[in-house]
Description:
NADP; PXL2A/B/C; lipid metabolism; 6 helices; two-stranded antiparallel sheet; EC 1.11.1.20; Prostamide/prostaglandin F synthase
Amino acid sequence: MSSLQPIFDKNNVKLVGVAPESLGLEEFQKLNLFSGDLYIDEKKKCYTDLGFSNYSFMGALGAAVDKDTRDIANKAKKEGISGNIKGDWYQMGGVLIVKKGGEVLKLYKQQKGSDHMKNQEILDVLGIKAEAKAGTEAQPECSDVCGLPPKK
């Protein structure tokens, strides 16, 4: 999504991310994969309020062997992005697009770790007449694909 930052800048769109924990944050920031403001919600209040789901243990196990998940892991590896097995592997996320003034334009919820909104769909929801660059559709989610999480 950060590949859209130049388009966002031209259209006065602010990119904000919310992470469920600070574990791995420094490592993530060093990769320069996210160009927006990043907030930590360790109590996961926004995740709960938005209705984002969690994997069960069996769901996480299934995600580890899912073809789409493996494809994203391979794409990330080719781009030099590595993951780790730290942190909360069970929390799903999504995309919330809010118009200035608070009107919700789109709430996209992951059903599995490899799910993501396509960049062109984000631009379309925002009403921005621009074309996402080729090769920017799949957003690697390494924290979801690089191994089976420890049981909490």
